[in-house]
Each structure stands twice: as structure tokens, then as C-alpha cells.
Amino acid sequence: MDWPQLRADFPILNQEVHGHPLVYFDNAASSQKPRQVIDALVHYYQHDHANVHRGLHELSMRATDAFEATRKKVARFIGAAREEEIIYTRGTTEGINLVAQVWSAQYLKPGDIILLTGMEHHSNLVPWQLAAKRSGAILQHIPVLEDGTLDLDTAATLLTDQVKVFACVHISNSLGTINPVKDLCAKARALGAMTLVDGAQAVGHLPVNVQDIGCDFYAFSGHKMCAPTGIGALYGRYELLEKMDPWHGGGEMITTVTLDTSSYKAPPAKFEAGTPNIADVIGLGTAIDYLESIGLENIQAHGNQLTTYAYDQMQALPGIRILGPRQPRASLIAFALDCAHPHDLVEFANTYGLALRGGHHCTQPLMKRFKLPGTSRASFYFYNTHAEVDQMMNILHQAVKFFS
Ligand code: PMP
């Protein structure tokens, strides 16, 4: 794989920040976009833009074809059985809210258990807190062990037939832990629970197959995998989508409307009210083509190499605490230094052109679990290099000297 050649596809990476070459290690927050995706957006707006589905004219048909072709690509990319199982969303957050709101209104009763984990992103906690409040369901959480993995012994005792929803993050954005979602979903489904996986950090980083995982729902965001912001997808098993009530009401999701009542289209249209984010859907399709041309196994292998290379050097820094297991680990390393608050460290790194992220990473309960105000996080993607890790190590060594 010609990694330097691939890196050249990302024009934004070729710049200096505060007089130093930019080292972008904030990929878990959002990835950068290759020229191919940027060009696809420009081409669409310059040549093909019109509203989808409604028009019989040339531009509307072109826009509709590209919009629906991407749905097929997304379905294939994540291993869905059919394209009608893919609902376009703004991202992971919106996908989870859709399921939590519809499910709690339609199915959850007082006393039902919603089982989550202690390492969820706020976007897989808050929607379920709202759902519990509305329905009278009870929230429970699988604890996180000191090594940053789930406490599977306790999980076994929490998985009872009172659990009606099991929702779990595939890869933790704060620990790098890769959770055994296939096994957990199988256990939860055998007890009759609906299962949802938050795939925000997984899709585009390793091969994902929702049928192999066996979950009912899987949500992810395009912007973390080279696609534009504001677009993502929710996978849902078709027979569940068919039975579910709509979420938002409006144009495009109906078959007939009278002043008093409406009937709804079949999924996915039932869940896509209003004019969708057409351009960014097309950008998502281009991003999938781009990632598939590299190969998800190659992307994962490169990420593993870089992460292990960084992890082993970082471990030797005085006063460092790295969260999460060494292996298996996704391409991110969150850490705390005794000598510096994460915000101070991230500001220091920024003066050398190094983009890290500092804070609670939208996982406040997890920070509390580890008794930390927050962490600093370096997160990698396939366009990052070993030389950039060396640069980060230099800066971290200087930071330790500066703050000690
Ligand atoms: N879950 C995880 C694990 C994440 O890392 C993120 C993004 N930081 C989200 C959910 C939410 O994704 P988005 O903000 O794109 O909806």
C-alpha cells in the first residue's frame, strides 16, 4: 500500500500550524476528507443538484440515482441484508435518538430494563435516559474494569429476561477498547431484548458486518470515515423497521395524507421525512469507494502498527497513565500525565502544530469511573505516519520537562 501517495489525497494535511508541520491526531473526533470526496461535492453542486424522488426531470433523476446508489453501497459496506435497511441520518447521535424515541414510545413499559455499559458516549446514554424517563423503564450499566474492558462476569448476571434493550458501543472513543458486541448481542437477543450498537468509531476503521454481529440496529457517522459532516446511517433489521412507528413526520415519508390522518411509506422512506442531505449522501458514497479501494483490512493493520508504535513509546513517559488495554485496541490512545492538565497539554501541543484532543470526550461517567477530570487523546487514521508519531513523542517529552 502506497501510504504517502494516499496522504497526498488530503490537501488539508499539507500545512504548517504555528510554524510547524501539522500533525493531525484528532481523527476520533473527525477525520479529514480526501480530494475525491471534496470533488464529488463540487461536481454534484455544479452539475447534478435537484431535489430527489419528486422530480421527473433529468437533474432530479441524476440526484435520485446517486442518492439511492449510495444506499446500496452503505448496505454492502456494513453487510446489511438489503438496502431498505439503511436509513440516512445526520450521524450516530441522530440514529440512536431515532431508535430510543420510537422504541420507548411504542414498546417500553415501567420496570423494563435498558442495559447499557459504563463506557458509552453521551450519545448512547442521554437518549436512553430520556427514553427511561418517558416510559418508566430502568437503566442499568455493565461496569468497566480497571483495564478498560467490560466486566463480562457482571454482564452475565445483568443479562436477564427483564432486559428489553441492550445498547453498547462497538469501539470506545475514550479507551480504544473493542467490545465483544457479537457475543453480547447474541446473549441479549436470546433473552428477547432489542440490541443496538454504536459504531461511530468502528465503521471505516475495520471491516464491519452487521449480520455477523447480529445486532438489530447499528448507527454510525460519515464524518469519522472521510465523508462530509452531517451525514450518517442507521442500519435496522427490516422486520423491526416495518413494525416501528415513524419518528419525524413530514413530506416524503407518507403515501396518503388527509387533514386528520396519514399512511406511511415502507422503510426506509418512513424514517426519512423532508428533503434529505443529498450532497453529503453522495459524498458518503464517494468516501466508501475511496476506503474500499484501500481495503478495510489494510486500514486496520496500518492503524494497529501506528498505535502499537506510539503506545510502547508513550508507556515509557514519566508519570503517564494510559487508559484501555494495549491489545486489542483501536487506533487511539487516551492518557493522563501527572504533571499537566489535559487542556494545558493540548494547548502546549498545539503550539508545535500537534492536534490532540483533551477533555472528557463525551464520556463523563467513564472519567468519573477512572477518577480523572479528563484525558488527552491521540487518534490515528491511515494517512498518519510513523514520522508523525516520532514528532508527537518529541513534543510529549518537551511537555513533561516544561510542566514538571
Ligand atoms: N459514539 C461514539 C463512540 C463517538 O465517538 C461519537 C463521536 N465522538 C458519537 C457516538 C457521536 O457521533 P456524532 O457526533 O457524529 O453523532
Highest-level CATH class of the largest domain: Alpha Beta
What is the CATH topology of the largest domain?
Answer: Aspartate Aminotransferase, domain 2
- Would you count the extended β strands for me? 17
Shape label: globular
Strand order of the largest sheet: 4-10-9-8-7-5-6
Major beta sheet summary: 7 strands, mixed
Low-confidence regions: none
Work out the helix count. Answer: 14
What proportion of the residues is helical, as a percent range?
25-40%
Distance between the termini: 41 Å
Cofactor: pyridoxal 5'-phosphate
Function: Catalyzes the removal of elemental sulfur and selenium atoms from L-cysteine, L-cystine, L-selenocysteine, and L-selenocystine to produce L-alanine.
EC number: 2.8.1.7
InterPro entries: Aminotrans_V_dom, Aminotrans_V_PyrdxlP_BS, Cys_dSase_SufS, PyrdxlP-dep_Trfase, PyrdxlP-dep_Trfase_major, PyrdxlP-dep_Trfase_small
Describe this structure in words.
The protein has helices at 3-7, 35-48, 58-77, 92-106, 126-135, 152-158, 181-190, 210-213, 238-243, 278-294, 296-314, 342-350, 364-369, 386-403, and strands spanning 16-17, 20-21, 23-24, 86-89, 113-117, 138-142, 163-169, 194-198, 217-221, 232-236, 254-257, 262-264, 320-322, 332-337, 354-355, 357-359, 375-379. With 404 residues, the chain is of the alpha/beta class. The chain has two domains: 3-32 and 295-398, Alpha-Beta Complex (Aspartate Aminotransferase, domain 1); 38-292, Aspartate Aminotransferase, domain 2, CATH 3.40.640.10. It has a seven-stranded mixed sheet, sandwiched between helices. Strands 13-14-17-16 form a four-stranded antiparallel sheet, with helices on one face. The longest helix is centred in the N-terminal third of the chain and has 20 residues, at 58-77. 46% of the residues are buried.
